[in-house]
Specification:
The chain has helices at about 20-30, 50, 65-85, 100-110, 140-155, 170-175, 185-200, 220-230, 250-260, and strands at about 5, 35-40, 90-95, 115-120, 160-165, 205, 235-240, 265-270, 275-280. It is an alpha/beta fold. The structure holds zinc ion (2 copies). One zinc ion (ZN) binds near residues 9, 94 and 241.
Amino acid sequence: MFGMDCHTHTSVSYDATATAGGLCRRAISLGLEALAITEHVELNRWYSQGYYGAVARNKYEKFNNCEVMEKAMKQNTSVKDSYGNRLHIISGVELGQPNADFGLADSIIQDNRLDYVIASLHELHGKEDFYSLDYKKESADNLIKRYFEELLLICEWGKFDVLGHMTYPLRYIQGEAGINIDLSVYEEQINACMKALVDSNCGLEVNTSGLRQKYGQTFPTLEYLKLYRELGGEMVTIGSDAHCAEDVGAGMEKAISLVKEAGFSYLCYFLEREPVYVPIP
Ligand SMILES: [Zn+2]
Ligand SMILES: [Zn+2]
């Protein structure tokens, strides 16, 4: 089957159950050309709890993400040795909140074991992950404005390969809390982010996790893939955001059809931090 999956997690990421070998075997059984393993490394919790003088605000907040990074790189190197002759294994990372410390982010991504860096924004400065917020108490409008403000800083920094699951807050605000959001209200902010993304020569991910969740759509939707292309963007990856082996490649056909509909004739994946373009059949 034509395809690839450029966003997956194992139990090295605190919230996933898959093993790296399990992800690889699933990808091989589907006949995928490439699989990226992209563990969560939350930059705002890179050091120990003591360093920040902070406490975990929920069970997902783990400190010492520097240790996750090291485990991830060792794991990825090891599965490349075991399965790398059957498909391209991409040693990636999902770098959360790089805007917490761009200098630190710069140094982390120098790691030459990395093929691929996804930049993500799961939580706003001083707030918990969008997953944990109480939308009866929060202003959705204010949160989304702040999301695009912080996302703009990340896009302007631009030292990553692709922007992960753009419009992530909608997974919870619209999907879970059922608050309908009209994104056209944020058009200026979204345009600025996309322009910065293109100017930084970064790619855009089509994340299919929303198709398996209440939100029911990809992050982002077709409209924003089209916008990225109109502004001159050329690098699009697709990723399931699988947290278990069964979800590898999930929603891939839908994602490919959206990418085509947006006018792209190539998908890409990354090896040694360089894009590899693959024509869509
Ligand atoms: Zn994420
Ligand atoms: Zn992820």
